Amino acid sequence: MNRLLFNFSPWLDVLAIAAWGGLFLYYRANGKLFLLIHPSYMWLTVVAGVVLVVVALLKGMVLMRQARRSTVRGGSGAPHLRIFPPGIGSLLLLAIAILGMVITPRAFASQTALDRGATDTLTVTRVRPQVFRGSEKTEDKSLVDWIRTLTVYPEPDAYTGQKAKVQGFVIYPPNLPNQYLLIARFVITCCAADVYPVSLPVKLAQSRDTYKADSWLEIEGAMMTETLAEKRQLVIEAKTIKEIPEPKNPYEY
Predict the structure, then answer these.
(1) Which of 167, 174, 177 is nearest to 200 (CA)?
(2) For 205-212, which contacts have Cβ atoms below 8 Å and span 24 or more sequence positions?
(3) Other beta carbons within 10 Å of 189
(4) Is the full-model pTM beyond 0.85?
(5) How confident is the model at residue 124 (pLDDT cuts 50, 70, 90)?
(6) Measured CA angle at 35 (ends 17, 105), to 5 deg
(7) DSSP3 helix / strand / coil % (the chain, rounded to 5)
(8) Among residues 232, 237, 205, which one has the least CA distance to residue 219?
(9) Span between the terminal Cα atoms of the chain, in Å
(10) Are 143 and 167 in contact (CB under 8 A)?
(11) Nearest Cα to Cα of residue 253 among 122, 85, 105
(12) Is CB count within 10 Å lower at the N or C end of the chain?
């Protein structure tokens, strides 16, 4: 087995490099790269994918030339002593790249949002607005726009009666009554490892059981102030609720 791995080790390197380059380009082609990285860095990922494929091709050409010379000279030297079988690292990288093509990436769900803490503010470690701009039509604000507005001026009474129309996925907060749910989005600043959830409470006219957790909704209503979980908060009093499909790119920036 070790002898077989030693003979094919250089080609495993080529396959692993090509597979990772192909994986980057595959995710870009099928739109799944949006789930993994901020759009500002996608071009870097695509460039890396192309470079890896080119490197794999060049390395493959070099190996074929070396193989022809080795045949003419009558074989290669004895293998070196190794702790691990040769090529095991490349074999693992190749297996992971293949799994990446078989297993489709999915957007984070409501349980992840609860685990990471869905809030209506941006904490110190997160990207904060540097400029505040008012909007003539409050119903044109996205959920993240409302969160940024609250970060600049957090008094909820300032927005009472303003119209709202936001889209997001449903979270069932365990500390809120059954008449309330959270409408949430994940914000990505670099890659999937640093996404964080933001949300606003929504007051319903009926039980939240009507809407499944993780389902996507478009909610129209008016802003109001309520005290929930011993905290005064800006709440959307829903007037109309429409189920919508999950967006191709579910993250905000």
Answers:
(1) 167
(2) 205/238, 206/179, 207/178, 207/179, 208/170, 208/172, 208/178, 208/179, 208/180, 208/181, 209/178, 211/170, 211/181, 211/241, 211/243, 212/170
(3) 13
(4) no
(5) very low
(6) 65
(7) 45, 20, 35
(8) 237
(9) 50
(10) yes
(11) 122
(12) N
- How many CB atoms neighbour CB 11 within 10 A? 16
Structure tokens at 195: 């996404």
Which amino acid would we find at residue 111?
Q
Per DSSP, 20 falls in state H
pLDDT of 136 over the 70 cut = no
pLDDT band at residue 241 using 50, 70 and 90 as cut-offs: very high
Q: Which two tokens stand for residue 224?
A: 């109001």
What are φ and ψ of residue 77, in 5° steps? -75, 175
Q: Give the tokens for residue 164.
A: 């709202």
Two structure tokens written together for 114: 């609860």
> Using one digit for the tens of pLDDT, what is the confidence trace for 57-81?
999 999 888 888 776 555 555 555 5
CA torsion 132-115-110-168 (nearest 10°) is 0
CB atoms within 10 A of CB 79: 13
CB 34 within 8 A of CB 248: yes
Q: Any idea which residue has 């907060």 for tokens?
A: 173
What are the phi and psi torsion angles at 239 (to 5°)?
A: -105, -45
DSSP secondary structure code for residue 37 in this structure = B
Q: What is the dihedral of CA 32, 37, 39, 40, to 10 degrees?
A: -150
Tell me: the pLDDT tens digits for 210-230?
899 999 999 999 999 999 888
Task: Please tell me the distance from the alpha carbon of residue 48 to that of residue 172, in angstroms, as a whole number.
Answer: 40
